[in-house]
Structure formats: structure tokens, C-alpha cells
Amino acid sequence: MHDYPDFSKLPTALGPNIKVDGRFYPYFGGTAYLGIPQHKMFISLYQEGIGLYGLTNGTSRSNNVQLGIYEEVEAYAARKFGAAAALMVSSGFLAAQLAVKQFAKFGQVRHAPETHPALWLDEPPTSKGSFEQWAKAIVEEINESSVKQWLLISNSMNNLFPEIYDFSFLSEISKDKQVILLVDDSHGIGINNGGLGALSTIQAPQQVKVLVVASMGKALGIDAGIIMGDDKLVGKIKNSNAFFGASPPAAAGLHAFMKGEKYYAQERNRLGMLTERLGKALQHDPNWHFIPEFPVFLSKNADLSKSLLEKQILISAFPYPDKDGDLVNRIVLSSWHSMEDIDTLIRALTK
Hints:
Elements: E1 17-20, E2 23-28, H1 40-53, H2 69-81, E3 85-89, H3 92-103, E4 108-111, H4 131-144, E5 149-155, E6 157-158, E7 163-164, E8 178-184, E9 208-215, E10 225-229, H5 231-238, H6 241-245, H7 251-259, H8 261-282, E11 288-289, E12 296-299, H9 304-309, E13 314-320, E14 326-332, H10 339-350
Parallel strand pairs: 2-13, 4-5, 5-8, 8-9
Antiparallel strand pairs: 1-2, 3-10, 6-7, 9-10, 11-12, 12-14, 13-14
Helix pairs in contact: 1-7, 2-7, 8-10
């Protein structure tokens, strides 16, 4: 038995190092890929936003008096991510629920394997197997069915067992069908495709309309959710009672998001160098799975987290797919790590 510290109630915010019982543990986990929660210049932009707009805005988007920043940042986000239209809401979960419930009755609903629970309806989806298997099967099902309208729901990637999904199968869907593709890009936005995420990479034929939802609380570092894509689909959500009735995200965070592109780019570049460094060290080791330019490294060694903890290094480790499953051991990099942190990690992994 090992006398491990209790990490369940940390005395300070998560960062590159965690101090518990007087000991420092380099931390390689979480979802703050660009280190925004502790980025001093980004925080200064947030503070500037607080000075302009206050801490929060409790009025709904239906109120007769509105802060102009909401429509301004939605137009900015649409331009930035290559969308026809965008909406800002208070969380990624709300973004997903607004979208899936708005279009659940559009047609036959099909979820890809491992779809995030935020995109579920009343019951967990039953899809099994790989994304590629699902994509092949769904094309056959749609094309052979007399049903004309379909809602396909998927993540943009699997961040646990790193894989970015290929949506080129959409081109094989029969032209006489009407399909809405709803994609959760929470782990890709701000990182993948030069930070632009999945939307601009999905080449949808005319019979497929694309809607992307995402949490902005991971790489982008603010408490908000985004909905973007086809303007008519976004417009339907914008006119829904649920959107009008919900309080929006804090305007201060949106101000920082809109003004912070320089810092996002700097941190994305830094993260890329760190990811490349670790990737080169592990590229010939069959015990690891990772994909280029994404800062998550999956270990096939179920005991890795315990052995690293003995060396005072803390990584992401939790049971999957349920509480009784095997531990999924992952190293997650953030731009707040230093090259020295990566070299320390490499020595611990290779000796």
C-alpha cells in the first residue's frame, strides 16, 4: 500500500503544479489546453471586461435592454470559425441541449458511438463499435430507407482514445435525403485545424446541413457555450423559448475571447512545440497511442498513474467506460507546461 495524498479537495486552482501536504506534483491532466485559466494577459482582458460589463448579466436575451457585445461577439465568432451564424449561451451543455431538443423531431435520430451525454435525448444511445463502422452503416441505412429526414449526432473527435473523426462519408448520402449533422467540438475548438476546430473541415453536400456546438471552457478558457453553422438552423434556436429565457454568459469573458486572439495563437504555438517534443520521445513505443498535434497521450499501461505518482507526477486516470472499468491513463499537455516539465516527464517515462 502507498500513502498517497488526497487530491479530491485541492487547496488551490489547477495549474502546471499542484501543492498538497507541502509537496509539489507536476500535473498533466485536465482540459485547459492553452493554459488560459492562469494566463496573466488573458486575465487582464477579463478584468477589463469586468470593468466594462460587471461580473455577470442575469437578464435573458429577450429583455428589451441588451448589451451590444452579445451580437458583436456572435458575429465575430461566426467570421472566426467560418460559420454562417453563431449564438453564445452560458455553457457547452446548454448549447448541446438547445440544439438536440430543437431538432429531435426533425427526423430519424442516430447517435455515433461515444457521443457526449450532453447530446443524448431521454435514453443513452446504443451505438457500438468504431466511428468508421458507424459511418458506413449509417450511409447504408439512410440510403436504403424510405425516411427522408435524419438527424445525425456525433462528437468531432474522441479525446480519450485520441482520434479526429472523418466526416467525408456525408458525400455518399443520397441526394434525395435531408440531413442535419449535429457535432460537439468541445475538445477540438481552439486546438484542431489551427484553432478553428471542426466546422470548416466538414465538407457537407447540399443535402446535409451542419450545426456545431462546443464548450468554450476548455481550450478557449471562458465559461460559455457556442452554437454555429447553417444560418437557418441557428435562427431556429435563436427564436426558441429556451434560448430567449436563459441568461447569457458573462460579457466579461466574451470580451476577453474577442480581444485575446494574439494570446490564443501564442499559446497554441507553444503547445504545439511541447506536444511535438513528447511525441518524438514516444513515437516508437507501442504502449502509447496519440495523434499528431493533439496534446493527449493514451497509455496502454493500466498501472502508469500509480508508478508516476511514486515519482511525484500526477496524470489523468479514471475508470472507463463506467466506475468499475479499467483505469484510462492519459497524459494531457497544456501550454502552461515548460520544456523542462516535458523533459522531466520523458525521463520518468523512459527510465
